[in-house]
Specification:
159 residues; Translation Initiation Factor Eif1; 4-stranded antiparallel beta sheet; 2 helices; elongated; structural constituent of ribosome; Ribosomal_mL49
Length: 159
């Protein structure tokens, strides 16, 4: 047993070097080129807007030409489903009524939700009673756990 008078008054300091951990999220950037010829021959990515060399005072974008059947111009839809900051759709499974009722919830939809409900009902071959729209929260509820089918529908629609 060490007497109080012989004990050290302060605890020894640990030599631990603590460095802060930084998380870097990917950021999408748009590239503007000053030449009129394309520099990257990527077929699946759309052509980047270019700076017009004829008018130096104003920026004009050139429309990408349709060269393959994959690059068909998209139809303007009356609704839009946005993604979160992790680039995922807001599609979630829910259980209600004590776990007996299984529901899939689609969030972050904007625009004409009735048109989205109609397209979703036709794509998944559902009855009218299986799909409902909550106009206050702007959520679409689909009866059953159909998350993968809804995600496939949203990706094929081009969102």
């Amino acid at each position: 047993m060490i007497w109080r008078a012989l004990r050290p008054t302060t605890a020894p300091t640990a030599s631990i070097i603590r460095t802060p951990i930084r998380f870097v999220l990917p950021i999408r950037t748009r590239m503007f080129s000053t030449s009129t010829a394309e520099t990257s021959p990527a077929a699946d990515t759309p052509a980047a807007p270019t700076l017009s060399s004829s008018s130096a005072s104003s920026f004009t974008q050139t429309a990408p030409s349709v060269t393959s059947p994959e690059q068909v111009p998209k139809v303007q839809l009356p609704y839009f489903v946005s993604k979160n900051n992790l680039d995922n759709f807001g599609v979630y499974h829910r259980r209600k009524a004590g776990g007996n009722l299984k529901v899939t919830l689609l969030k972050r939809a904007e625009g004409n939700l009735q048109a989205l409900k109609h397209d979703l009902k036709e794509a998944l071959q559902l009855r009218d009673a299986d799909v409902s729209v909550n106009s206050v929260t702007k959520h679409i509820m689909v009866r059953g756990h159909r998350r993968d089918e809804i995600l496939h529908f949203l990706k094929t629609m081009g969102f």
